[in-house]
Amino acid sequence: MSTAPGHDAEDREQALKYAVQRVRGDRAQIVEGVVEPASTAWADAAALESLGDRIRPRARALGCVTGSGNLDLPGSPNWFVPGLAVVPAARAKGATVLLPSDTLLVVEIADGLAERKRRRYAEYHAPLCLVVDRQEKSVTLYSEPGRLGYTRVDGPHPFGARIRLPEPFGLDLDTSDLV
């Protein structure tokens, strides 16, 4: 693909990321250069809210907030909206966008995008990535990020199992009501 004079790949990346932040209606994200809706089905939203309710007390004790704010992956055609993320409050305050490395945990509902997003989260050093697969009724925790992906995988565990979120959380996460 040729580039117009004065417009390099970085300019195009920034223009696309600027535009996706201004989509009206549903939120949007960019996954490997494709603009995708960031809307959530009600069942998925209920699972994310349940997990958030369980994680939130420990997140607060750590001085963190939970939410689904924008995550930029500079130098790539990616702009993610996670299902849920835990971020230090000091970093989130006043921020419109953060990096995956700014998070302590990202949670994604397994769909056609989760696998690609998980690989990129590892590449951009999100320390923990929890993937909830509602079709398989399982939860998998990925940790120890590296350039080629996460080097530690805990799961899949069936819904109802307790999954250990390592430090700084030190929390046994109950997954019994994700069904």
CATH class: Alpha Beta
Domain tally: 1
Determine the fraction of residues in helical runs and give it as a percent range.
Answer: 25-40%
Q: Total strand count, please?
A: 13
Structural class: alpha+beta
Measure the end-to-end span.
45 Å
Would you give the CATH topology? tt1808, chain A
Q: For the report, how would you describe the main beta sheet?
A: 6 strands, mixed
Give the topology string: H per helix, E per strand: HEEHEEEEHEEHEEEEE
Strands side by side in the biggest sheet: 3-6-8-9-10-11
The assembly state of the depicted protein chains is single chain
Tally of helical segments: 4
Task: Give the overall average pLDDT.
Answer: 88
Which percent band covers the strand fraction? 35-45%
Fourth CATH level, the homologous superfamily: tt1808, chain A
Q: What would you report as the Rg, rounded to the nearest angstrom?
A: 16 Å
Assign an overall shape: globular
CATH-scheme architecture: Alpha-Beta Complex
The poorly predicted ranges are 1-5
Please describe what this structure looks like.
With 179 residues, the protein is of the alpha+beta class. It has one domain (41-174): tt1808, chain A (Alpha-Beta Complex), CATH 3.90.1570.10. It is 26% helix and 36% strand. The chain contains 4 helices and 13 strands. The chain has helices at residues 9-20, 42-61, 89-92, 114-123, and strands at 28-31, 34-37, 64-67, 70-73, 78-80, 84-88, 97-98, 105-109, 128-133, 138-146, 149-158, 162-165, 171-174. The strands form 4 sheets. A 6-stranded mixed beta sheet has the order 3-6-8-9-10-11. The N and C termini lie far apart (45 Å). 31% of the residues are buried.
